Amino acid sequence: MSSEPTASVHREHAAATPMALRPARRSIGAWMLFLGVIAVGLASDLWTKYWAFGTIAGTPVTFTREQALATSPLSLLIPPHTPRVIAPNLLNFTLVLNPGAVFGIGAGRVGFFIVVTVIAVAFGLGVFVLATRARDRAAHIGLGLILAGGLGNLYDRFFYGCVRDFIHPLPRVRWPGSTREVWPYVSNVADALLLIGIVLLLWHAWRSDTGRDVGVEAKA
After folding, report:
1. For the chain, what is the domain count?
2. Which domain holds residue 205?
3. Residues 86-141: tens digit of each pLDDT
């Protein structure tokens, strides 16, 4: 009997394995997906902020970084306006200037958050280059979303001295028997990208761990 078919299968398997394990930094497709997600996410965040602050208050809201850093509270830079109801009790658009991080954490520490965001972006890029494979698409999308969100808010902090927010989920929905809102925070597309990206990375990590466990059991 000829061993040629078996040898052919082995050659095909040997050729396929390096492709599956190829580092993302050596894959054009991985780079295109990663950078494409960053570009689309960043453009979406900046465009929606531009649209929101240009239309929701009835007149364009413009200010400089110097004005933001010299004004307290920042709400003085936004004219009184009625929130735009997108879905009653589910979603409103209202303009807010956030001097802190996500959900207003660390208000007033603009310089600190600029440095932290730059480090986080560099770390995310490092993870893509050093710790992912060409086929890890969920990780590449997650990292791309996180970097897009970080860059979107970094742009605001650098050029405006604060972050422009306008998305208010569950407006006026309160906890039973309480006057406290279920979700009092106003955020933006960048914040949503960050949260979705983190979820995707956790899912990727879970799938990777599960895959290793299955592989160990199969070998046993």
Report:
1. 1
2. 24-215
3. 999 999 999 999 986 555 555 556 667 778 888 888 989 999 999 899 999 999 99
Q: Which residues are catalytic?
A: 165, 191
* Burial profile 75-86: b = 16 or more Cβ within 10 angstroms, e = fewer: eebbeeeebbee
Percent of the chain with pLDDT over 70: 80
Query: Is 115 among the domain residues?
Result: yes
**Three-class SS of residue 21?**
helix
Residue 166 DSSP SS3: strand
Question: How many whole angstroms separate alpha carbon 145 and alpha carbon 120?
Answer: 13
Alpha carbons 157 and 49: distance in angstroms, whole number: 13
Q: Which string of DSSP letters, residue by residue, matches 127-154?
A: HHHHH-BTT-HHHHHHHHHHHHHHHHHH
Q: Is residue 60 part of a domain?
A: yes
Q: What is the pLDDT of residue 219?
A: 47
Q: Which residues pair with 164 in a beta bridge?
A: 97
Nearest to 108 by CA among 70, 159, 153: 70
Residue 186 within any structural domain of the chain: yes
Comparing 95 with 205, the larger pLDDT belongs to 95
Report the Cα 220 to chain-centroid distance in Å.
Answer: 40
Query: What letters, b where the CB count within 10 A reaches 16 and e where it falls short, cover 104-120?
Result: beeeeebeebeeebeeb
pLDDT for 220 equals: 46
From the number of C-beta atoms within 10 Å of its C-beta (0-12, 13-18, 19+), residue 7 rates as: exposed
Check pLDDT > 80 for residue 193.
yes
